[in-house]
Design goal:
The chain contains nine helices and 13 strands. The chain is an alpha+beta fold. The strands form four sheets. A six-stranded antiparallel β-barrel has the order 1-2-3-4-6-5. The protein has a three-stranded antiparallel beta sheet with strand order 7-9-10. β2 and β3 form a beta hairpin. The two termini are 30 Å apart. Its EC number is 2.7.11.1. InterPro entries: Kinase-like_dom_sf, Tyr_kinase_AS.
């Protein structure tokens, strides 16, 4: 989501500020295809998603998500797809249909690129200097995996689009989830003119390509921030907000499946040493939902689990699931880069310190003096009161400063 890249620097704030991204590859030439072949489809055409490209989009209702955890049937691939070049396959096999709404259209212009290139998966571009378009064009997906096996790029692009669209649609049902994810501006389709053939002998072909529109977040991903340069309370503040955001998303009925520093963006960079921790105002947002699962979706195949999860959430509402349970023994993505201690049981003790007395979360039972025994949720009946969970009756997340315990816990890290 960020249009910046990490640059080594002794200044702890430089990795937290926006920078200009540089092209990852010459988009006019596909190095993966041969120029010498007589097959007009042997070489992929230039990538159209560059600065200045203007296109007209129509609103599109995506098909049901499919793949892991969904029982949606996917049409079988055409028999000879492995024998076709990537260009030929993408021209002969359109994406799954869904529903197009021609009356709902808009014209967009790419004003900068975030991630664009051959074999990069979905293309990420900024449009109209205000939004990000995530474009699921199979022609520019990698057509072989790490072991050299042929990939069904149309299947992969369809899967990414349908799953991410389903995720964002689900997230809109929760105000709290909307607060910790990019604003969502819908699902769309465009008709892309694709020139095929050798230079001077090219023929135009039309292809339908799907994309989603979302908020352009001008921040920095956690993987581009070097926590060693941050004060310990600031590191804990950011990490705590990130885990809180994931808990909100989970409570909204979504399993992210790729929650890690590269998919978490930090907004705000007032981390100067002279600023008190309690005066720091930052937000954390989570993105990249192309492999996520909506457990409330009618095509979700684990129906018993979905019912059980819904009953559990209802039982504890308005409290939400505790990161202590979700990340106990699973903090490597965060402790290895230095967001919390990597000492024996250090991450688990960090979780316990920051979340076990937080009334926004379901209470957890664990004995730090007997760390080998996993934590578990407390019995609701054992609580004497239904203290505030950090959510208002409308489900909004309370901001920093509304609850003194938030700033207190950050200062006492």
């Amino acid at each position: 989501m960020s249009d910046s890249k990490a640059t080594p620097s002794p200044d702890p704030l430089i990795p937290l500020r926006s920078r200009t991204n540089s092209p990852t590859q010459d988009v006019d030439y596909d190095v993966s295809e041969s120029e010498d072949s007589d097959d007009e489809f042997s070489r992929r055409p230039r990538i159209p998603y560059v600065k200045g490209f203007t296109f007209s989009a129509q609103q599109h209702a995506p098909p049901d998500p499919f793949g892991r955890d969904y029982d949606t049937e996917y049409p079988p691939a055409q028999e000879n797809w492995k024998a076709l070049s990537q260009t030929h396959y993408c021209l002969s096999c359109p994406p799954r249909e869904g529903q197009i709404y021609p009356e709902e259209s808009r014209t967009l212009t790419i004003t900068s690129t975030i991630r664009s290139g051959y074999d990069r998966g979905a293309q990420l571009v900024v449009v109209d200097n205000s939004m990000v378009a995530k474009i699921y064009d199979p022609l520019y997906y990698a057509d072989t995996d790490a072991w050299g096996s042929k990939e069904d790029v149309v299947h992969n692009a369809d899967c990414d689009y349908s799953r991410e669209a389903a995720a964002y649609i689900q997230l809109q049902k929760s105000q709290a989830a909307r607060d910790v994810t990019p604003a969502f501006y819908g699902t769309w389709t465009i008709e892309v003119e694709t020139l095929v053939g050798k230079i001077g002998q090219q023929k135009p072909h039309k292809r339908h390509v799907r994309f989603i529109l979302m908020e352009w977040l001008r921040g920095e991903t956690m993987c581009n921030i070097r926590p060693v340069f941050l004060r310990r309370p600031v590191r804990s503040l950011i990490l705590k907000k990130a885990l809180h955001a994931e808990a909100i998303i989970s409570t909204a009925g979504l399993i992210h499946r790729d929650f890690c520093p590269r998919n978490i963006i930090v907004l705000g960079d007032n981390y100067d040493a002279e600023i008190s921790v309690k005066d720091i105002r930052i937000k954390v947002k989570v993105f990249d939902f192309n492999i996520s699962t909506v457990i409330d979706h009618p095509r979700y195949e684990l129906h018993d689990y979905a019912i059980e999860a819904e009953l559990f959430r209802a039982k504890w509402h308005p409290r939400i699931e505790s990161p202590i349970i979700g990340y106990f023994g699973h903090m490597n993505e965060f402790c290895c880069p230095g967001w919390c201690s990597d000492e024996d049981m250090g991450p688990e003790k960090w979780l316990w310190k920051h979340f076990h007395n937080d009334p926004r979360f379901i209470p957890v039972i664990w004995d730090p003096n007997n760390p080998d025994k996993d934590p578990s949720y407390a019995d609701r009946a054992s609580l004497k009161d239904g203290s505030d969970s950090g959510f208002s009756s409308g489900g909004e997340v309370k901001e920093e400063g509304e609850r003194s315990s938030e700033s207190d816990s950050a200062q006492n890290t």
